[in-house]
Amino acid sequence: MKFIELIDSVPDYKEFFTVEEMDRRSLELAKRYPGKVKVYEAGKSRGENPIYVLEIGSGKKNALLFGCPHPNEPIGAMMLDFLSERLANDDTFRDQFDYTWHLIKVIDVDGTKLNEGWFKDSSSIRKYAANFYRPPGHEQVEWTFPVDYETLHFHSPLPETQVLMKLIEEKKPEFMYSLHNSGFGGVYYYVSDAVPELYETFSKLPGLFDLPLSLGEPEAPFLEQLEPAVFKLFGMAQEYDYLKKNLGPDKDPADVIKAGTSSDDFASSVADTFSLVCEMPYYYDSRVEDMSEADITRKEAQRFNYQRSVENFEFVSEVMKAVEPYVIDRNSPFYRVFKNVLETYPDQLQAQKNWIENDPSLERKASVAEVFDNKIVSQFYQSLMLGMLRRLLRENDNGSKELAAISKMADEAFERKMEYLENNLNYTAVPIKSLVSVQLIAGLNVADYIQRRES
Question: From the record, what ranges are coiled-coil (predicted)?
Answer without folding.
Answer: none
